Structures are given as C-alpha cells and as structure tokens.
Amino acid sequence: MEIKTVGVVGCGLMGSGIAQICAEAGYSVIVREVNDALLKKGLGKIESFLAKGVEKGKVTPERKAEVLARLQGTTSLEKFAACDIVIEVVVESLQVKHELYQALDGICPAHTLFASNTSSLSITEMAAVTKRADRFVGLHFFNPVPLMKLVEVVRSPLTSPEAFEKAFAFAGSLGKTPIRATDKTGFIVNRLLVPYLLDAVRALEEGVGSVGDIDEGMRLGCGYPMGPFTLLDFVGLDTTYYIANIMFDEFREKRFASPPLLKRMVQAGLHGKKSGKGFYDYSQDPPKPVAGLV
Ligand SMILES: NC(=O)c1ccc[n+]([C@@H]2O[C@H](COP(=O)([O-])OP(=O)(O)OC[C@H]3O[C@@H](n4cnc5c(N)ncnc54)[C@H](O)[C@@H]3O)[C@@H](O)[C@H]2O)c1
Q1: Residues with catalytic annotation?
Q2: Which of 5, 50, 9, 47 has the alpha carbon at shortest distance from 31?
Q3: 3-class DSSP state for residue 137?
Q4: What is the DSSP letter of 29?
Q5: Does any ligand 1 atom lie closer than 6 A to the CB of residue 119?
Q6: 126 lines ligand 1 (CB under 6 A)
C-alpha cells in the first residue's frame, strides 16, 4: 500500500524536524506529543524554522502555509489508525518505547510500517514486542533533520525485504540519502564516530594536546568541518556518554568505553552547548576552551 499519511510520535528536537520534512515532501502528517504545552512548543519550532526561511527568501509564504496545513498535532495515539508509517521519536528509553509500540500495535492497521529513530537501542528488541516484527525498521535521522542529508535505514533479522525496501524508498522520497545498515548497536555512523570522539577525550587526558589544538588538528589536518570537542559539545556530552555505555555493553571493547573525564564532565553538568558549557564555554563569543578540565 502506498504511503500517504505519516505518523510521528514525539515532537522534540528530532521529532519536530522529521514531522517538518515529511510535510515538506507532501505527506499528510500526524504528530503526537505527550501534552498540549509540548505540542505547542514542537509545532512552534517548525513554524519558526519555516518563518526564518521566508525571511531569508528561501521559502515563499504560500509554501510555508501549504506545509503547515499538512501537519496535524495531537496528544492522542488513536489518530495513528490513519497512518501508513509511524516514526517513533521519543526519549531513548527501552521501557518507554516498548509501552508505546504495544499501544500502537493495537491501534494501527496491519499494513502500517513501524520505524524507530533510536540512536543506540536494538531494533530487534523493540520489534519483538509487536505482532509486526516483519514490518519494523530503524530510520535513523541526523540532527538538525531539515539540513542533514543522511538516513540510516536499519533492518533486523525479522524485517521482511518488502518492508525494508519500502522504508528505504520512503527515506529517499524525503529528499534524504538513505544507506543500508544491519541492527548492530550504533549502526554505521556511530560505530565509527563514537570511538573517534572517545579517543579525542583520551588524547586530552594523556596530555597529547589541548582542546583547541586537537580540534584545529582534525579540522585542518583532516579537512573535517569541526574538531572532535566542538562536535562533542554539539551532540551533547550526556548523549555521547549514554551511547558509549550502550555500545560498550554490547561489544565489550575498550574503544567504546567512556573515558573518566567524559563521565566526570557529565556528572558536573557540563553537557556541552545545550547547557552553556562543555569543552568550550558558550558564554564567551567566540566560545573559549574551559580551563582546568585535566
Ligand atoms: N538528538 C540527536 O542528535 C538524535 C539524533 C538521532 C537520533 N536521536 C534519537 O531520537 C529520539 C528522540 O531524541 P530527541 O533528541 O528528539 O529527544 P527530545 O528530548 O528532544 O524529545 C524526546 C521526546 O520524547 C517524548 N517523551 C519523553 N518521555 C516520554 C514518555 N514517557 N512517553 C512518551 N513520550 C515521551 C517527549 O515528549 C519528546 O517528544 C531518541 O531515540 C534519540 O536517540 C537523537
């Protein structure tokens, strides 16, 4: 069955971006938040992203109105009975996701595909709590969703080839470049990126170089758009720490183990850009490396 209506569960950082690009691609979108205040906030983010586009002359007012008209916000899951695909974008907790999938399984028709945007949880484990494990995939988008081109499309051993190809084509229809991955924690990008970021923290701990010099080294020596500490601050140190722990738990390899400095910074509330301080202090313009970390 053709995908016409998309359900997005969660309108936070990632969910609002995913709902937006689905509406931009012409799909009818139902997006759910847990309460009215969060729904208003999430839809407000989409509205202001499009409004900035209008200000910059990149989006016409008519196009903005057309995209917003395709978006329907709700606080109830019952509306998802009309969806051909449901993308789950709630907090990274297996228990919360399990409860949600069990509820959605009873609401959605048999043909509805389920897709999780999880960064580190097992697609197989989530699929197994539903009666549609063959129609369950991972669709891993990147932050900020409207700007980042990549989507990792993930299959579990239970995903049917038809469901996988449908999800793959759907990701392409959103104007993204999909790549194929199997259900191994971290998929492709985090599998390679997380050990690199953790190694940068270890290099700092060992006194190989300063935050600024290591960042500059990777930017100018490797042509990366930003150094590892700038990227860590952007992703969130708490998020990186959480993903590293899940990956270490899965693979039991040192390269995925969180260095003590990362743990201490998370404990100290130095979560990166979102908390105002991480490896850099964002109260300064331009941000300055934080002194006394090691
Ligand atoms: N932040 C990133 O860079 C990024 C990138 C790729 C994937 N992801 C994944 O996307 C998902 C969402 O992350 P985010 O960054 O948008 O988080 P967020 O904190 O911005 O949003 C979390 C969402 O979960 C909802 N939620 C919280 N508790 C809930 C509950 N008990 N029941 C139902 N809903 C609940 C919130 O209302 C909100 O909509 C996670 O699985 C995360 O791993 C995040």
Answers
A1: 119, 140, 152, 190
A2: 9
A3: strand
A4: E
A5: yes
A6: no
